[in-house]
Specification:
12 strands; alpha/beta; 3 domains; elongated; five-stranded mixed sheet; D-Maltodextrin-Binding Protein, domain 2; Arc Repressor Mutant, subunit A; 12 helices
Length: 316
Protein backbone atom coordinates (compact mmCIF):
# COMPACT_ATOMS: atom_id res chain seq x y z
CA UNK A 1 0.00 0.00 0.00
CA UNK A 2 1.48 3.32 -1.12
CA UNK A 3 2.09 6.00 1.49
CA UNK A 4 0.04 9.20 1.38
CA UNK A 5 1.91 12.29 0.20
CA UNK A 6 4.14 13.80 2.88
CA UNK A 7 2.15 17.03 3.19
CA UNK A 8 -1.05 15.06 3.84
CA UNK A 9 0.61 12.86 6.44
CA UNK A 10 2.00 15.92 8.21
CA UNK A 11 -1.33 17.75 8.14
CA UNK A 12 -3.28 14.78 9.49
CA UNK A 13 -0.86 13.49 12.11
CA UNK A 14 1.34 16.32 13.36
CA UNK A 15 0.20 18.71 16.09
CA UNK A 16 1.63 21.91 17.55
CA UNK A 17 2.81 19.87 20.52
CA UNK A 18 4.94 17.82 18.14
CA UNK A 19 6.58 21.00 16.80
CA UNK A 20 7.33 22.17 20.35
CA UNK A 21 8.79 18.78 21.20
CA UNK A 22 11.12 18.70 18.18
CA UNK A 23 12.23 22.28 18.89
CA UNK A 24 12.98 21.39 22.52
CA UNK A 25 15.03 18.31 21.56
CA UNK A 26 16.97 20.43 19.07
CA UNK A 27 17.65 23.22 21.59
CA UNK A 28 18.62 20.95 24.52
CA UNK A 29 20.22 18.07 22.56
CA UNK A 30 18.66 15.63 25.01
CA UNK A 31 15.39 13.72 25.33
CA UNK A 32 15.66 13.94 29.12
CA UNK A 33 16.05 17.73 29.17
CA UNK A 34 13.34 18.16 26.56
CA UNK A 35 10.96 16.01 28.65
CA UNK A 36 11.70 18.11 31.74
CA UNK A 37 11.13 21.32 29.81
CA UNK A 38 7.79 20.08 28.47
CA UNK A 39 6.72 18.40 31.71
CA UNK A 40 6.49 14.97 30.06
CA UNK A 41 8.04 11.60 30.86
CA UNK A 42 11.18 10.61 29.00
CA UNK A 43 9.52 7.50 27.45
CA UNK A 44 6.64 9.70 26.20
CA UNK A 45 9.07 12.07 24.45
CA UNK A 46 11.03 9.14 22.95
CA UNK A 47 7.79 7.57 21.68
CA UNK A 48 6.60 10.89 20.21
CA UNK A 49 9.92 11.41 18.43
CA UNK A 50 9.68 7.91 16.94
CA UNK A 51 6.10 8.59 15.80
CA UNK A 52 7.10 11.89 14.18
CA UNK A 53 10.04 10.32 12.33
CA UNK A 54 7.80 7.45 11.22
CA UNK A 55 5.20 9.91 9.94
CA UNK A 56 7.84 11.81 7.98
CA UNK A 57 9.75 8.72 6.89
CA UNK A 58 12.92 10.62 7.80
CA UNK A 59 15.46 10.55 10.64
CA UNK A 60 15.56 13.92 12.36
CA UNK A 61 18.27 13.29 15.00
CA UNK A 62 21.35 11.11 15.48
CA UNK A 63 23.23 10.35 18.67
CA UNK A 64 26.73 11.78 19.16
CA UNK A 65 29.14 12.50 21.98
CA UNK A 66 27.32 15.84 22.40
CA UNK A 67 23.90 14.22 22.70
CA UNK A 68 21.20 14.27 20.05
CA UNK A 69 22.24 16.24 16.96
CA UNK A 70 19.87 17.20 14.17
CA UNK A 71 20.38 15.65 10.75
CA UNK A 72 20.03 17.80 7.63
CA UNK A 73 16.34 16.83 7.55
CA UNK A 74 16.09 17.71 11.23
CA UNK A 75 17.56 21.19 10.73
CA UNK A 76 15.07 21.92 7.96
CA UNK A 77 12.14 20.62 10.02
CA UNK A 78 13.21 22.57 13.12
CA UNK A 79 13.56 25.80 11.15
CA UNK A 80 10.00 25.53 9.83
CA UNK A 81 8.65 24.31 13.18
CA UNK A 82 10.09 27.36 14.96
CA UNK A 83 8.68 29.69 12.31
CA UNK A 84 5.22 28.15 12.77
CA UNK A 85 5.47 28.47 16.55
CA UNK A 86 6.66 32.07 16.19
CA UNK A 87 3.66 32.89 13.99
CA UNK A 88 1.34 31.37 16.59
CA UNK A 89 2.94 33.53 19.29
CA UNK A 90 2.62 36.61 17.07
CA UNK A 91 -1.06 35.99 16.38
CA UNK A 92 -1.73 35.42 20.09
CA UNK A 93 0.05 38.66 20.95
CA UNK A 94 -1.86 40.61 18.32
CA UNK A 95 -5.21 39.28 19.57
CA UNK A 96 -4.25 40.00 23.18
CA UNK A 97 -3.03 43.45 22.19
CA UNK A 98 -6.38 44.22 20.57
CA UNK A 99 -8.24 42.91 23.60
CA UNK A 100 -6.18 44.45 26.42
CA UNK A 101 -4.42 47.41 24.87
CA UNK A 102 -0.76 47.80 23.97
CA UNK A 103 1.24 44.93 25.43
CA UNK A 104 3.34 42.15 23.99
CA UNK A 105 6.96 41.08 23.89
CA UNK A 106 9.93 41.98 21.68
CA UNK A 107 13.15 39.98 21.49
CA UNK A 108 16.12 41.82 19.98
CA UNK A 109 19.67 40.79 19.14
CA UNK A 110 22.17 43.64 19.15
CA UNK A 111 25.74 44.20 18.12
CA UNK A 112 28.07 46.77 19.65
CA UNK A 113 27.17 49.61 17.25
CA UNK A 114 23.47 49.57 18.19
CA UNK A 115 23.78 48.88 21.90
CA UNK A 116 24.94 52.31 23.11
CA UNK A 117 22.48 54.80 21.59
CA UNK A 118 20.19 53.37 18.92
CA UNK A 119 18.52 50.54 20.85
CA UNK A 120 18.31 52.27 24.27
CA UNK A 121 16.85 55.38 22.65
CA UNK A 122 14.22 53.37 20.78
CA UNK A 123 13.31 51.34 23.89
CA UNK A 124 12.79 54.53 25.91
CA UNK A 125 10.49 55.94 23.22
CA UNK A 126 8.60 52.64 22.87
CA UNK A 127 8.00 52.44 26.61
CA UNK A 128 6.38 55.89 26.55
CA UNK A 129 3.80 54.62 24.05
CA UNK A 130 3.52 51.02 25.24
CA UNK A 131 4.61 50.70 28.87
CA UNK A 132 3.37 47.11 29.08
CA UNK A 133 5.63 45.78 26.31
CA UNK A 134 8.25 43.34 27.63
CA UNK A 135 11.66 43.59 25.93
CA UNK A 136 14.44 41.01 25.91
CA UNK A 137 17.89 41.97 24.56
CA UNK A 138 20.70 39.60 23.58
CA UNK A 139 24.27 40.74 22.79
CA UNK A 140 26.31 38.82 20.26
CA UNK A 141 27.89 38.68 16.83
CA UNK A 142 26.15 37.95 13.53
CA UNK A 143 27.28 34.33 13.45
CA UNK A 144 25.36 33.78 16.71
CA UNK A 145 22.37 36.09 16.24
CA UNK A 146 21.35 35.49 12.61
CA UNK A 147 20.61 31.77 13.05
CA UNK A 148 18.37 32.68 16.00
CA UNK A 149 16.65 35.29 13.84
CA UNK A 150 16.01 32.74 11.09
CA UNK A 151 14.61 30.30 13.65
CA UNK A 152 12.14 32.87 14.94
CA UNK A 153 13.79 33.24 18.35
CA UNK A 154 14.57 36.92 17.63
CA UNK A 155 12.35 39.59 16.08
CA UNK A 156 15.18 41.89 14.98
CA UNK A 157 18.97 42.03 14.89
CA UNK A 158 20.54 45.49 15.14
CA UNK A 159 24.04 46.70 14.33
CA UNK A 160 26.39 47.50 11.48
CA UNK A 161 24.92 45.85 8.41
CA UNK A 162 27.13 43.17 6.82
CA UNK A 163 28.83 43.85 3.51
CA UNK A 164 27.69 42.11 0.35
CA UNK A 165 24.24 40.97 -0.76
CA UNK A 166 21.45 40.40 1.71
CA UNK A 167 21.21 36.84 2.92
CA UNK A 168 18.36 34.75 1.57
CA UNK A 169 15.14 35.18 3.52
CA UNK A 170 16.38 38.24 5.47
CA UNK A 171 15.73 41.95 4.91
CA UNK A 172 18.21 44.73 5.72
CA UNK A 173 17.05 48.24 6.57
CA UNK A 174 19.61 51.03 7.03
CA UNK A 175 18.95 53.79 9.58
CA UNK A 176 22.14 55.86 9.28
CA UNK A 177 25.82 55.62 8.34
CA UNK A 178 28.35 55.72 11.16
CA UNK A 179 32.07 56.39 11.22
CA UNK A 180 34.68 54.57 13.26
CA UNK A 181 37.01 56.43 15.61
CA UNK A 182 39.99 55.67 17.82
CA UNK A 183 39.27 56.52 21.45
CA UNK A 184 41.65 56.78 24.43
CA UNK A 185 41.39 57.97 28.03
CA UNK A 186 41.44 61.72 28.64
CA UNK A 187 45.09 61.93 29.81
CA UNK A 188 46.55 59.38 27.40
CA UNK A 189 50.04 60.41 26.15
CA UNK A 190 48.82 60.22 22.56
CA UNK A 191 46.44 63.12 23.14
CA UNK A 192 49.47 65.43 23.01
CA UNK A 193 50.15 64.45 19.39
CA UNK A 194 48.76 66.77 16.71
CA UNK A 195 49.13 64.25 13.89
CA UNK A 196 49.10 60.49 13.92
CA UNK A 197 49.42 57.62 11.47
CA UNK A 198 48.62 53.94 11.87
CA UNK A 199 52.35 53.27 11.90
CA UNK A 200 52.69 55.50 14.99
CA UNK A 201 50.25 53.21 16.81
CA UNK A 202 51.73 49.79 16.01
CA UNK A 203 53.39 49.46 19.42
CA UNK A 204 50.34 50.59 21.39
CA UNK A 205 47.96 48.26 23.23
CA UNK A 206 44.77 47.97 21.16
CA UNK A 207 41.21 47.17 22.21
CA UNK A 208 39.42 45.59 19.25
CA UNK A 209 36.19 43.70 18.59
CA UNK A 210 36.41 39.95 17.99
CA UNK A 211 37.56 38.67 14.55
CA UNK A 212 34.01 37.57 13.63
CA UNK A 213 32.75 41.17 13.72
CA UNK A 214 32.31 43.43 10.71
CA UNK A 215 34.28 46.27 12.35
CA UNK A 216 37.26 44.00 13.08
CA UNK A 217 37.47 42.99 9.42
CA UNK A 218 37.41 46.66 8.44
CA UNK A 219 40.27 47.47 10.82
CA UNK A 220 42.33 44.54 9.54
CA UNK A 221 41.73 45.69 5.96
CA UNK A 222 42.81 49.22 6.90
CA UNK A 223 46.18 47.97 8.19
CA UNK A 224 46.62 45.72 5.16
CA UNK A 225 45.98 48.64 2.78
CA UNK A 226 48.65 50.63 4.65
CA UNK A 227 50.98 47.63 4.20
CA UNK A 228 51.23 47.19 7.96
CA UNK A 229 50.76 44.14 10.13
CA UNK A 230 48.08 44.19 12.80
CA UNK A 231 49.43 45.31 16.23
CA UNK A 232 50.55 42.39 18.38
CA UNK A 233 49.36 43.80 21.70
CA UNK A 234 45.60 43.24 21.34
CA UNK A 235 42.66 42.77 23.67
CA UNK A 236 39.55 41.37 21.97
CA UNK A 237 36.27 42.22 23.68
CA UNK A 238 32.59 42.67 22.85
CA UNK A 239 31.66 43.53 26.45
CA UNK A 240 30.52 47.15 26.72
CA UNK A 241 31.26 47.34 30.45
CA UNK A 242 34.71 45.75 30.13
CA UNK A 243 35.57 48.06 27.23
CA UNK A 244 34.53 51.16 29.13
CA UNK A 245 36.65 50.28 32.18
CA UNK A 246 39.68 49.37 30.05
CA UNK A 247 39.46 52.60 28.07
CA UNK A 248 39.10 54.84 31.11
CA UNK A 249 41.64 53.02 33.31
CA UNK A 250 44.49 52.05 30.97
CA UNK A 251 46.43 53.22 27.92
CA UNK A 252 44.63 51.06 25.36
CA UNK A 253 43.63 52.49 21.99
CA UNK A 254 40.08 51.43 21.21
CA UNK A 255 38.48 51.23 17.77
CA UNK A 256 34.74 51.88 18.11
CA UNK A 257 31.71 53.16 16.23
CA UNK A 258 31.34 56.80 17.20
CA UNK A 259 28.00 56.34 18.98
CA UNK A 260 29.51 53.75 21.33
CA UNK A 261 31.91 56.31 22.88
CA UNK A 262 29.92 59.48 22.21
CA UNK A 263 28.67 60.04 25.75
CA UNK A 264 32.08 59.44 27.39
CA UNK A 265 33.66 61.89 24.93
CA UNK A 266 31.02 64.49 25.78
CA UNK A 267 31.69 64.00 29.49
CA UNK A 268 35.43 64.44 28.97
CA UNK A 269 36.31 60.90 30.06
CA UNK A 270 37.57 59.86 26.61
CA UNK A 271 39.25 61.61 23.71
CA UNK A 272 39.09 60.79 20.01
CA UNK A 273 42.52 60.64 18.38
CA UNK A 274 43.17 62.85 15.29
CA UNK A 275 43.40 59.99 12.80
CA UNK A 276 40.87 59.33 10.06
CA UNK A 277 40.01 55.72 9.27
CA UNK A 278 38.94 55.65 5.61
CA UNK A 279 36.74 52.77 4.57
CA UNK A 280 35.38 52.10 8.05
CA UNK A 281 32.14 54.03 7.76
CA UNK A 282 29.26 51.57 7.71
CA UNK A 283 25.48 51.57 7.59
CA UNK A 284 23.76 50.82 10.89
CA UNK A 285 20.33 49.26 10.78
CA UNK A 286 18.06 46.29 11.38
CA UNK A 287 17.93 42.79 9.94
CA UNK A 288 14.60 41.00 10.01
CA UNK A 289 12.78 38.19 8.29
CA UNK A 290 10.19 40.56 6.83
CA UNK A 291 8.62 43.78 8.15
CA UNK A 292 5.20 42.27 7.40
CA UNK A 293 5.95 39.30 9.69
CA UNK A 294 6.73 41.43 12.74
CA UNK A 295 4.37 41.15 15.70
CA UNK A 296 2.73 44.47 16.68
CA UNK A 297 5.15 45.27 19.52
CA UNK A 298 8.20 44.57 17.31
CA UNK A 299 6.73 46.68 14.50
CA UNK A 300 6.26 49.52 16.98
CA UNK A 301 9.89 49.21 18.13
CA UNK A 302 11.01 49.29 14.49
CA UNK A 303 9.24 52.62 13.99
CA UNK A 304 11.06 54.11 16.98
CA UNK A 305 14.39 52.66 15.74
CA UNK A 306 13.85 54.50 12.46
CA UNK A 307 13.14 57.75 14.26
CA UNK A 308 16.12 57.48 16.64
CA UNK A 309 18.34 56.37 13.76
CA UNK A 310 17.50 59.50 11.76
CA UNK A 311 18.46 61.71 14.71
CA UNK A 312 21.73 59.87 15.27
CA UNK A 313 22.61 60.15 11.58
CA UNK A 314 22.08 63.90 11.66
CA UNK A 315 24.19 64.23 14.80
CA UNK A 316 27.03 62.02 13.54
Amino acid sequence: MALAPLDRRMTHKLRLRHLELISAIHDYGSVLKASQQMNLTQPAVTKSLQDIEETLGLQLFVRSSRGLVATYYGEVFVRHAKNVLAQIRHSAEELQSLHEGFGGHVTVGTLLAASASLLPGAIIELKKDRPNVAITVFDGTYDVLLPRLRMGDLDLVLGRLPEGPQREGLIHEEFYAERTCLAVRRDHPLTQRKRLTLENLLDEAWLLPVPESHLRRQIERLFAQAKLHLPKNIIESMSALTNRVLLESSDVVGAFPYQVVREEVRQGKLTILPLKLPGTESPVGAIMRSPGDLRPSAAALLEHLRSVGRRLGEED
